[in-house]
Amino acid sequence: MALTDMLQIPPATPITVAITTVAIAVAIFLYFKSHASNHSRRSTHPPPVPEVPGVPVLGNLLQLKEKKPYMTFTRWAQTYGPIYSIRTGATSMVVISSNEIAKEAMVTRFSSISTRNLSKALTILTADKTMVAMSDYNDYHRTVKRHILTAMLGPNAQRKQRVHRDFMIENISMQFHAFVANSPKEVDLRKIFQSELFGLAMKQAVGKDVESLNVEDLGITMKRDEIFQVLVVDPMMGAIEVDWRDFFPYLKWVPNKKFENTIQQMSIRRKAVMKALIKEHKKRIASGENLNSYIDYLLSEAQIFSDEQLIMSLWEPIIESSDTTMVTTEWAMYELAKNPKMQDRLYRDIQSVCGSNKITEENLSQLPYLSAIFHETLRRHSPVPIIPLRHVHEDTVLGGYHVPAGTELAVNIYGCNMEKNVWENPEEYNPDRFMKENETIDMQRTMAFGGGKRVCAGSLQAMLISCIGIGRMVQEFEWRFKDKAEEDISTLGLTTQRLNPLHTVYKATSKKVDFLNKPEEVVAEVNLWAEKQTSGLIKEILPLDAVNIDTRLIFANAVYFKGVWNEKFDPSKTKDYDFHLLDGSKGEDNRRFTMYFFLPDAKDGLQSLIQKMGSESNFLERHVPVRKIEVEQFLIPKFKISFGFKANDLLMELGLVLPFDHIEGRLTEMLEPSNDGNLFVSGVYHESFVEVNEEGTEAAAVTAVVIQAQCMMIEEKVDFVADHPFMFVIREDMSGVVLFMGQVVDPRVT
Ligand code: HEM
């Protein structure tokens, strides 16, 4: 927990000055009293923990103001040793910056240090410790931790959640590609990654990632980014809000209404949103949907929960998922951008294990260097630099020193991970320190996930997402810094979040082949590559005669997109309806119904719609609606389209003639100089495939469909019945890049 942000002293008013005067008198009395009693204890106990000198009343508060506290703590450790005590106002705090003593505190002496004394803000935001991570170690903690591991974060649950992670990683990759294709400048890794992590957390916790939500208690409908703000951003900021009474508990009777109101409002809004999400989910259960998320488990297995406990148990993984994993991944990408050799080494490792396939979780055990990068990032950039404060509730001994009951305990993970006698050159980012032969990396070696009975419950999920995320980003892009971003290592917030995002450039991969002697093999290899890139949807992009002894180069790119509907269609409700073909006949549509599209009013209006789209500039932008309307009847046919052609003639018709010209082609500069003569394009081949069914096709397009329905801009419910030819577009929303565009004239024809 970041303490620096807790150290702002409120501005003085006449009342606070008077109160402060009394406070100082009381505090000085307590200060000397506590010193006197410490002194008298010395003869019977192990020695007291060495103290960092401070000033009366404020103790060391002012010294902590300047820098991030974990840095200051680590610096003090060099002078005062691996364990020392400080005072934050009237509270005495012991700080540990050593692996060994931290383990002693978290494991051996755990029974004396297993409660928490929360700040005022955290007491409100955690509904008085109704969270695993912030509760005391008691029955409630054990029960809920067991539930969350069984249903969401443990190995079995993570196996079942795999589909959500894969979907998320595909989405992240697709958004980066769309971003880079559109404007190859700065890519905000954080924005994309964090938003997708939030989506994953929502699916895991409450069964669905929502685009908007009617929050009855607040009388408003919230969009996704507002929901994110209320559930994640506000509470993260609230957790580090400062109430000066936290430092002077004997002054807690003094009102601080403004502070309390701010935090209470955050808590009320969060509760209202969570209540609305739970209500929506109960509706889905009542409609017979087969769901398998944490909420389903809690509703069926843990009926003993009060409403408040249910809300908090579901909110907890949402806030915990959305930040730390992203922080780790972003720091890893920072280090890889800074160290091109490491980036290359990881890229080659992945190539040798995965070939042209995308990296998957099955590959992780064969990629020790990737794992080493993950762990070294956790060590060097400890995402949670200080473990949320523990409270010493009975006298104990740590590192050979006496620690009295009533002390707060700060385990400075950052300091432990920078300890010189444990880590050689700790300042240096060096994944090789985790590459010892035959050594499987102990998840707790870096202390980044804490340890003992309160070890992080989400470490497996964090590792899987972060490793696959890093792997895919290195497989598909080359990471370089933008201007002086390399020097920028500023952090902000509760975790060690980087201040500024990273910058990426697209990387194409190349391979040498033997056109002269093995043209058939080259064709087979390109086709196999296409098949892999499109997960088997496109098996043959090149015909056998496309390559011959004169071929010098083949460029290829592939887009593969897979997604599920936000709300799946119920196959039992799929019916056969008439589809009105352009010739006026009715084709029997024995397929099921799905998809997003531009449906002309007239049954034969498709051609004029296409013309309009082609001739009007920004047609799509101008027809993407800004708000949502309710659709009464929503019917669309299931369909499958596969289409392939040699595009030479079409491109030449469009005016792209020169590259095809045997004599004038002159693409010579693309290759090293040789006596080969002219280079020209001999063929451009294109294949595409789209399938739509009840499960979905892709998520971005789901959004587009919903939005499409909105463009009519009318208040009453409308029917949307695609029973005649229509157009569809699959578009990435953030960048506006169109991935696929097609027309369905007869859904029976594939
Ligand atoms: C790289 C990512 C992460 C890091 C570095 C991290 C770190 C930590 C740390 C240091 C603790 C405190 C342990 C203590 O108090 O002794 C903790 C606790 C916890 N974390 Fe994580 N965490 C990460 C990701 C996650 C994720 C993704 C989730 C859930 C979705 C999660 C859920 C929890 C829970 C429930 C606890 C409380 C455990 C307890 O008190 O028994 N964490 N984590």
UniProtKB/TrEMBL annotation:
InterPro entries attached to this UniProt entry: Cyt_P450, Cyt_P450_CS, Cyt_P450_E_grp-I, Cyt_P450_sf, KO_chloroplastic, Serpin_CS, Serpin_dom, Serpin_sf
Bilayer topology: Single-pass membrane protein
CDD domains registered for this protein in UniProt: CYP77_89, serpinP_plants
Gene Ontology terms: cellular component: chloroplast outer membrane; endoplasmic reticulum
Positions with a binding annotation for heme: 456
Location of the protein in the cell: Membrane
Alphabetically ordered keywords of this record: Heme, Iron, Membrane, Metal-binding, Oxidoreductase, Transmembrane, Transmembrane helix
Family statement: Belongs to the serpin family.
Protein name as catalogued: Ent-kaurene oxidase, chloroplastic-like
